Every structure is written in C-alpha cells, then in structure tokens.
From TrEMBL:
One of its GO terms (molecular function) is carboxypeptidase activity. The keyword Lipoprotein does not apply. It is an enzyme of class 3 (hydrolase). Belongs to the peptidase S11 family. This is D-alanyl-D-alanine carboxypeptidase family protein.
Length: 323
C-alpha cells in the first residue's frame, strides 16, 4: 500500500531545543533562533531514505519534530481507539485547568460511582475509595498510567458535570486541532462509538507533548495513591525501551492493540522528538495479544527511526538553504 509524505521544514536544532513541525499553528515546545533549514521539497527525500517496517495490519503514522511526516499506512477510515482516548481527556482537563510543572492542582473528591467502578472486572480501573480527596495531578496519573476508566469518568463529571458535556468539549478540541475524522463519545474510550485515525491521533500527540505536566506524567513508570499500599504501574511497557518517553496504550477485543508513542532519536543538540500512532493490531483477539502486537510493531518502528534518521537527514540535502 502506498503511503504519503507531508511537506515540512527540516531545521537545525540549537541549544538542545525542539523545533515545531511546519504547519503546526501553535509552535513547538522550544525554539532555536536563526535556524537554518533545507528546502521543503527535500523532506520527501528524508522519508524515502527511511526503511520503515510498517505493520502489516491496522493503521500507523509517524512524524519527526522539525522534519515532518515520515508517512502513514492503513488508510483513513476511523476505527476504535480504546484507551488512547484518554490522551484527549487529559488534554482537555489541562486546557480547562492548567497546571505548572510543580503544581498538584485542586483536590477532587472521589464519588460513589468512581469508587464502585474501581472494583470492575470488565474494564481497567484505578484503586480509589469514596470520599477520598486526590489532587488533579494524582488523578491525571491514575487516568494515564493504569488507564483508569473510573478516573476518566470522574474527571469528566468534575469538569463538565456529565460525560456527555465533557465529550462535547473533547470534540470541540479535536475540531480545533484539525482532527476531522475523529468522534469522541466518552472520556474513557470504552465506547465503540469513539473512533479516530492514526493521522488524527498524531495531531493530538503533537499538542499533548507540548504540555509539560502531561509530558511528565506519560513518562512515569508508576505512581502511588494515598492510603493504598504499593505502587500503580504504567501499562506502557514500551517505556523500558531506550529513548521512549511516552505516551498511551489502548486495547480491547474489538479495537485490537493501540499505542500512541513518543521517543527521542539522535543525541545532544541533534536529538529530535519522534511521534507515532499504531492502531488496530490483532483485532478480534484478546486485548493482551493486541497490545503486545502494538508494542512489538511500535518498537520496530522506533528502532528503525533511531537507527536510520541521522543518515537520512545527512543524505537528503547538501548545503542547507536559508529560508
């Protein structure tokens, strides 16, 4: 299947900062003044030099910050994304209730519904108790690390009063990011009617990694809950891989294995943020089998980018042209 490459700008990164992707209206999380770039038509040459091991099933899309798209596979038909949905949940919560890197935010009381759902045997949940007061930051950790559906719905009620009202906010945010093939119908992702594409979710990943709190949370290996013994681990086992710094898992029998990921390629001042989304791996098997396939296929893509990107950048252009 053929894959497309979007034009972008390849920039030299100074002082270890990130350069935002071209066409990204909100800019990157860092900047490099006086950056020199190659011509935009040479971005295709970078992608052409990459030998990426695309998954044979589902959808996948990758981009490199400061370079542009490395392509996508699997078409643009919206599919179920399961708990990858929670990245938008966290994004909307932090847009409505911003936190600085060292802030915990307001305390939120765990209601009866969230406490009862903590004992569910049919969906992922986080260990919370009725009446417990947890900070916004701690709840974001319980949303994104163990993928607590009960916490997703609790945060939706806290912010908007109901899941329906919160889903409307999620859809408005998606529209604002140009995610034209995405529909959210709940905060957790358990609903089969929540659907998106790898390309659309990549747009969200780009924005999510600009928020320092969200970026820090998705890189955590575990968290704790006050009054609960032990730690709560992150479901994203890909964090054990060198250079991986996030983002979010999602799996179900109907959705298959899904993974939105962020990794670094290169070193020193030449390091670059690589973002990818892999959807629909081993659909109609078990969630465990699907997620394992998502980890394996994403890991192979990350290995290839980390290995081949420096040479692809060097070979794509001769002397950089001033913009």
């Amino acid at each position: 299947m053929a894959w497309g490459v979007s034009a972008g700008i390849l920039a030299v990164v100074g002082a270890g900062g990130w350069i935002g992707l071209s066409g990204d209206g909100e800019g990157g999380s860092g900047s490099a003044s006086g950056a020199v770039a190659v011509r935009t038509d040479e971005v295709a040459a970078v992608a052409a030099r990459m030998r990426l091991p695309w998954p044979e099933e589902g959808q996948a899309s990758i981009e490199v910050e400061g370079v542009g798209s490395l392509g996508s596979r699997g078409g643009r038909e919206p599919v179920q994304i399961a708990s990858v949905t929670k990245v938008m949940t966290a994004y909307v919560i932090l847009r409505e209730h911003p936190l600085t890197a060292d802030e915990q935010g307001p305390e939120i009381t765990v209601d009866e519904a969230a406490a009862q759902e903590a004992h569910s045997l049919s969906e992922s949940s986080a260990p919370v108790r009725e009446g417990q007061r947890l900070t916004q930051r701690n709840l974001l950790e319980l949303l994104l690390l163990p993928s607590g559906n009960n916490v997703a719905r609790l945060l939706a009620r806290w912010d908007a009063g109901s899941q329906e009202a919160f889903a409307a906010k999620m859809n408005r945010a998606a529209a604002g990011l140009g995610m034209s093939r995405t529909t959210y119908t709940g905060a957790s992702g358990i609903e089969a009617t929540t659907r998106s594409t790898a390309d659309d979710q990549l747009k969200l990943a780009r924005q999510a990694m600009k928020d320092p709190v969200l970026r820090a949370v998705v890189a955590m290996r575990s968290t704790t809950v006050a009054g609960t013994a032990g730690t709560v681990p992150n479901t994203n086992r890909l964090l054990d891989k060198p250079g991986v710094i996030g983002l979010k898992t999602g799996s179900s029998t109907a959705a298959g294995g899904n993974l939105m990921w962020a990794a670094e390629a290169g070193s020193g001042t030449a390091r670059r943020l690589v973002l990818g989304v892999v959807l629909g791996q081993r659909v109609d098997t078990s969630p465990t089998e699907g997620l394992q396939a998502a980890f394996e296929n994403s890991g192979r893509l990350i290995d290839a980018v980390q290995k081949d990107l420096p040479a692809a950048l060097d070979g794509a252009s001769g002397k950089p042209a001033e913009l």
